[in-house]
Give the backbone structure.
Amino acid sequence: MAKTVVPENRQKTGKGGKRSTSFKPGQSGNPGGRPKLTPELLELRELARQHTRDAVEAIIEIVQDADAPASARVTAASEILDRGWGRATQSVEHAGPGGAAIPHSMVIEFVRPSR
């Protein structure tokens, strides 16, 4: 009979093979919800929002300034597009070597309990 090797960082399981941290149906993993923002962060957010128009206008000026470095103009243009249209989706390629399928395997081992 083969001995199962369990990584050290894997949590031990309880009854029925479920981890001891499994949540019961209807039980939240975060019952308190997202933490509330501090008054300082709320004030900072409001202050930043008050200057949104000025910030966007400054970015537009950089884009239109022919004397500005190209890198600054490209960065400014990117900021405008990201805010106006949202960031472009990032594609992720799921392929193995040479574009082939990703090699995978699964081993299922049935072990009779010892008596």
Remarks:
- Helices lie at 39-50, 52-64, 70-85.
